[in-house]
Amino acid sequence: MLTAAPHLHVRRPSPTTAEFTVSTYPRNPTPALRLLLLAVGALRLVLALGAALLLYAEYWTQFFTLASYQQSNLWLLPAAQHEFLLYHTPLGRLAQEVAARTPSWALVPACVGAIYAAVRRIHVEERLLVLRGLGIQTRSTPGTILLGGPTRFIPTEKIRDVLINEAFWGFGVRYILVVVVEGEEGLVVVFPKLLPRREIVEEVWRGVRGCLFDEGGVGEHQQFHQQPEKKRRFKDTKRRSPTKDGKKSPASVKENSGEEVRDRS
Amino acid sequence: MPRLTYNIAMVSDFFFPQPGGVESHIYQLATKLVDRGHKVVVITHAYADRKGIRYLTNGIKVYHVPFAIIYRSATFPTVFSFFPVFRNIMIREQIDIVHGHASLSSLCHEALLHGRTMGLRTVFTDHSLFGFADAASILTNKLLKFILSDVDHVICVSHTSKENTVLRAALDPVMVSVIPNAVVSENFRPRKYPPEPPAPNNGFGNATPAVHHLGPNDPVVIVVISRLFYNKGTDLLTASIPRILENHPNTRFIIAGSGPKSIDLEQMIEQNVLQDKVEMLGSVRHEQVRDVMIRGHIYLHPSLTEAFGTVLVEAASCGLYVVCTAVGGIPEVLPGHMTVFAKPEEDDLVVATGKAISALRANKVRTEKFHDQVKAMYSWDNIAKRTERVYKGIMGDIPEADFYGYDVGNTAAWNGESHSGVRSFALIDRLKRYYGCGVWAGKLFCLCAVIDYLLFVFCEWVFPRDHIDIAADWPRKIYHSDDDD
Predict the structure, then answer these.
(1) Which CATH architecture does the domain made up of B7-182+381-467 adopt?
(2) Which CATH number fits domain B185-377: 3.90.1210.10, 3.40.50.2000, 3.30.70.20, 3.30.230.70?
(3) CB neighbours of B395 closer than 8 A, spacing ≥ 6?
(4) Residues of B with Cβ-Cβ distance to A247 under 8 angstroms
(5) Contacts with B, A 138-177, CB within 8 Å
(6) Can you give the residue ranges of the PIGA GPI anchor biosynthesis domain (chain B) (predicted)?
(7) Per residue in B48-69, pLDDT tens?
(8) What ipTM was assigned to the predicted interfaces of this complex?
(9) Domain boundaries in chain A?
(10) CA-to-CA distance for B142 and A156, rounded, in angstroms?
(11) Are the CB atoms for A140 and A127 separated by under 8 Å?
């Protein structure tokens, strides 16, 4: 309910730059959905704080008494704040109580799990930034909100080709957008987490080739996602334009095969 | 009305890069079906460095499924583990017909079972003959019976093979068609054949190649190309070669192929001191077969069992006179004037070879005409056309009476049971068919079918149909020529 099917958003800040974002964030969230997301966020914050407090109480009750805490140098909090937190707030006392009663083998994993659930990202977002003359950069959101996303920049002179391939993935076959990088054994898969549907992959592929190699035929799919002020900047050559019925042109299908295998008996 | 075309999945464990008869059959058939405007994908398992999805020339898409190989060592778990991937491929390629090849391919059997569960039409092509007596045959036959009790149509490569399959799998004979193998005759031209093929449809007589007579002192060269196994009759060959050479001293043998029986042949050569008359080449690649064949005048084929014998067609196409044992489907392969038949025994083989040598010496056999005649008899275009007719029949696109060739309305003559090729997909009907397979086997097969169905329902729930991308089609060829002849 909180996430949507992966969808594409294209941004073209300049004629030589394009950013393709595939995300599971609802495209046009209704006010109700926004409120719900906000509420879920707040809930996660409370959950994280509560779990942290419990863990802290557990840490303290396991190892120290109040007196020994003040003497020891293993402080996590200064003594005054510590005393206030655990002894002068109702929540602190409750946490102490719970920590004392629950065995630590159950409490610690539960708290860690709760914190993980709280910081885990709900929405996955993967980006592909194309800069003509420079290269392309992939970026995807990490699992949690604590880290920045891993990025990978591939300079133009290293890019041998950008193509759509089919691959066995889990219990099925998926269309994947791959970058062939010079000097590398494997292929770089774009959008490796979301693995969007064929329409999105094709659109990104056309966009990337158009932007990176200045090829025409941005493709008619694009009009659904384009911003109004966006104008077609590439000359529309017949060669790359998709056929009428939306199927791929022979050229693009050929691209698809990667390497054409000629096999004869 | 536009021509009806289908999306066909050829499934077999045997496909390129591994060489072989079934492999090239699938490839050639697929190529010709694509020429006729159909869409063909081939599904096989992954070979060492051949994984994933590849395109061959002509737009044939090949799925080398890596999943099947994981469980290759164990047979039973494979039955269902292939299903999710198979279902995904069927949906994304929008397949109408599943066409399995080779009775020893477990991938093919699974695909036929799953295909029926998914409500697709299925065809099975049997490329081999089997016995009834030994344990392995009994097991294979049971398995075959299980799979074939619910297949829409079966294709055999010869009438003998049809008889064999009908008996093994207890099928209704009208469900079985005979479509032979063919050869690419351009690859099997005789030695002095003009490089430009003569214009089609000008008959045999108009462009007769030059007659080449055998001089009185020229040696007759006998070629044998076969894997040297027991069932290929290598023992017969070992016994007959010294006797043939004794009767006809001006004769040479060229033997190509390898196998466990090659040691026997070598011993025979040593014992009889025949090194200068018998040449053993070892194994040759398929594309070199023609070069070996054109060195000879007679092709000797002593096989003990053979479903079709494509090599005989290849030999005749190269302009060789053929001496072969009359076993299995071999007598159906070539017309009488190209062959001398022998019983599968030593004496008769020697006599038959003697006859062939005498006939060649007397220049009675017009071997130079064989190529054009074979070309007219065996072509993949024709095979594809006949296979397409089978597809039309099972899809219900040609009337049943046309397809099965008798009054299908007259069910009383057939014990009232529906023998119609258009078989019901209802689970209960399928279970009825499986139940008839045997006392214990029937129940086991029913269980398998039910589990398969449940797995299908589970897949529909976990991997919904509309979440599967439809694959892009290779541009279809448009087939113009009309095929009513």
Answers:
(1) 3-Layer(aba) Sandwich (3.40)
(2) 3.40.50.2000
(3) B4, B6, B96, B97, B121
(4) 472-473
(5) 165-168, 171-175
(6) 45-134
(7) 778 889 999 888 999 998 865 4
(8) 0.76
(9) 7-25+123-256, 32-119
(10) 60
(11) yes
